[in-house]
Amino acid sequence: MTFDELKTHYELPFFELLKRARAVHEKHWPEDEVQLCTLLSIKTGGCSEDCSYCAQSARYDSGVEAERLMPKCDILERARAARENGSTRFCMGAAWKGVRAGSKRFEEVLGIVREVSALGMEVCTTLGELGAEEAAQLKEAGVTAYNHNIDTSPEHYGNIVTTHTFQDRLDTIRHVQDAGMSVCSGGILGLGETADDRLRMLEVLSNFNPPPESVPINKLMPMPGTPLAGSAPVDTFDVARTIACARIAIPGAKVRLSAGRTELSEEAQALCFFAGANSIFYGDKLLTAKNPRAEQDLRLLEKLGMRPQAPDRDRAAPEAEPERPLAPQTA
Fold first, then answer.
1. Catalytic one of 37, 68, 78, 91
2. Which of 48, 77, 179, 202 has the greatest number of C-beta atoms within 10 Å?
3. Catalytic one among 198, 200, 247, 256?
4. Which sequence spans correspond to the domains of the chain?
């Protein structure tokens, strides 16, 4: 979808935009289901990157202490608990610039992935930059989806991160796609961006070939000690508009209501579900930010007449369209 098309949608009267997004959602996702995902930080803090929103950067005095990789037995215990609580996807995140094949920590991660995969859950990882070899090994170990957010527009990206480029993000995504894994990629609202930046972000995502399997929409939770600590909160209607445009632009993707849900009332979350969100991170903690408790989430879904989605480990990654360029596009 082009930027101009997205802007036309975004600037519609609010209820007209929601009506169009809802029609797209019901065509592609007719069941009243929400995917429940659990995200566990398996290696917290001490990251060398300078992402201005992230409390895990070693460059900021955020109060987050650098930790070693969690023991495999602890990770498996958390994965089993997540499965018992209804999660169908277990996502593991590590605060690294990236991983390299043959390194001790990457071999440890591969061993963890194999055992989590054996539990029957969908397995997602977010480990920073990947090369082609690392992506292939993660796929072979059992990773079904790889999260690598593009965060914001290509034009605004350099204002948020300077230790890697927007193109570096796209290169990792290309390696993930070439390895046959699904791509989970979205952005963060509240980074000082304009509405146009949000739409450019969605334009880039909608032109991935193959398209993203899931699109997380995060609402910035300003972290003490980071450059964005004093950022103003994002308006709930802007969040809903962005979700609606994401649903229209990438109809077959799960649109995930991610970080920042603690700042949204149940009514606001219901509005986001109506606009096209059909996936949430579920549990007590989202990396270093709070997340609504599992019991609250289940009660809300019950109120709305929605139900958790069943796991689908055998669902194939989205396929590329042969008539379109394979590389993720920035314009």
1. 91
2. 202
3. 256
4. 3-308
Size of the chain in residues: 331
Instruction: Look at residues 80, 99, 247, 91 and name the one whose alpha carbon lies nearest to residue 172.
Output: 99
Whether 124 is a known active-site residue: answer yes
Res. 314 pLDDT band, cuts 50 70 90: low
- For 3-308, CATH gives 3.20.20.70
Largest CA distance in the chain: 54
CA pair distance 145, 139, nearest whole angstrom: 9
Q: What is the DSSP letter of 44?
A: -
Question: Which of the residues 54, 169, 247, 272 is marked catalytic?
Answer: 54
CA atoms within 13 A on the CB side of 94: 25
Which pLDDT value is given to residue 143? 95
Q: Is 37 a catalytic residue?
A: no
d(C-alpha 26, C-alpha 44), whole Å: 38
Neighbour-count burial of 236, counting CB atoms closer than 10 A to its CB (0-12 exposed, 13-18 middle, 19+ buried)? middle
pLDDT at 256: 94
Marked catalytic residue, from 124, 169, 198, 247: 124
Contact 49, 161 (CB under 8 A): yes
pLDDT at 218: 93
